[in-house]
Amino acid sequence: MSDRKSIVSDPETVRARAMETLFERLESLCEGAIAIDRAGRVVYVNEKYLHSLRLNHVSEAIGRPIEEIIPNSLMRRVAETGEPILLDIMELGGEPLVVTRMPIEDENRNVIGAIGFVLSDHIDNLKPLIARMAQLESDLRLAKRQLSQARTARFTFDDYVGTTSGIARAKELAGRAARQSVTVLLSGETGTGKELLAQAIHNASARADKPFVSVNVAAIPDTLIESEFFGVASGAYTGADRKGRDGKFRTADGGTLFLDEIGEMPLQLQVKLLRVLQEREIEPVGSDKVTKVDVRVIAATNVDLQKRVNEGTFRADLYYRLNVLSIELPPLRDCAGDLPEICARLLDDIIHSGDYLNARLTPSGLAALARYDWPGNVRELRNILERALILSDSGRLTGDDFARILPVGAEARIAAPATAPAGAVVPYAEAEAEFERRTLECALAAANGQISEAAKMLRISRATFYKKLAKFGLAVPDSSSV
């Protein structure tokens, strides 16, 4: 009796026996077990697991890297990090398996390997749990995406594509703005990429890890615009949130506030905005206390603010405060040389954002786009490219594809192709040659005779461009233009 008591009361003996019992129980109850050493080589596999692994004998697994036995196994990660993966679903041979993986330690608690158990090859009982986990993961991804879209800037200067003089100048000034915390005024036609450049400035600045908050001033009702910008104190008025609400300036504190269509801001709010820019403090609606804020303001407009000042609809003092550094974004029609690169970037973005075929813009397609004057600028170009891609069965976008979808009236801005006399049938090879010749001429005209630029527009090499010029007997510009 005394011997039995001493054995039962010996903690180390009980602990050691518990470990042995646990392993024996798991091995007998599970559908398979496998262990590896610190280097990821298999040191143990039980007989029950051989069938699932498509092995005939244990010796076929011993000493081999775990990935040769179980492709994409996570066992090596457990052995390297010492972190267990207590419950997971693994596919092996097309079958889902419920598994657990744990590190193996020596007497000094050093990780010397890992062991994995297949707990079950039937996951029906776990389907409610799996479905719940999948839903939670989906909700988390959606929440992260919404938060990311609302509070962070995605674009960098690499996304503002182009090397022509107008774009290069805008980039150069934007780079200077990024190095300072000055207020910036972006001006340009609608669709020229003002918010993209604002995000790029933010991401290149010391505020990059702080919020980027974008507000379209014209989209906020006049009755709500003050509370949207400066927030509401708790209990400020009937129906207000009892806890109050932060405005855009508080939300953007430490970061950047982008005010799009600043020219549409009501006069009464312009006074308050001026004070924020001067004093760096806000006063929420219904409060008599001011709060300090540290926000860089980037404003944007597609109207002539100086004209608005002259008309009395925009405060002169606010205009001068906003116009510390002014950056003019050129319209797309003035950046013809950048059209191939801009189209390529837009097509990549469109393809990655939807279930589209891989797209290719043909020389005829590019020529058609180059002859249009793009009143809606890059935003309109993206719309046209996406529409053409939706209607295309091959993803090969030609001039005919764009001729069918460009806005009514575009015909006057796009040179009509030469037509054969009524009733005449032109051989295909002849028609194709004529089309290719006209494409070369169009590219040269768009590039002002610059061979390198014209070749870049057509996405071919200079050597190929020269060969095609010679093929059709077209004049080569003098050396000063190449």
Features:
482 residues; alpha/beta; Beta-Lactamase; Rossmann fold; Helicase, Ruva Protein, domain 3; 3 domains; five-stranded parallel beta sheet; 20 helices; 14 strands; 15% strand
Give your account of this protein's structure:
- The protein is α/β, with parallel strands linked by helices.
- It has three domains: 31-122, Beta-Lactamase; 157-330, 3-Layer(aba) Sandwich (Rossmann fold); 334-471, Helicase, Ruva Protein, domain 3.
- The chain is 43% helix and 15% strand.
- It contains 20 helices and 14 strands.
- It has helices spanning 2-9, 11-29, 47-50, 66-69, 75-81, 127-151, 165-178, 194-203, 225-230, 248-251, 267-279, 305-311, 316-322, 339-353, 363-370, 377-391, 399-403, 428-446, 451-458, 462-471; strands at residues 32-37, 42-45, 85-92, 95-105, 111-120, 184-187, 212-216, 256-260, 281-282, 291-292, 296-301, 325-328, 360-361, 396-397.
- The strands form four sheets. The chain has a five-stranded antiparallel sheet.
- Helix 11 (267-279) crosses helix 13, helix 18 (428-446) packs across helix 19 (451-458) and helix 19 (451-458) packs across helix 20 (462-471).
- The longest helix is centred in the N-terminal third of the chain and has 25 residues, at 127-151.
- It is flat, with a radius of gyration of 34 Å.
- The termini are far apart.
- Residues 411-419 and 478-482 have low confidence and may be disordered.
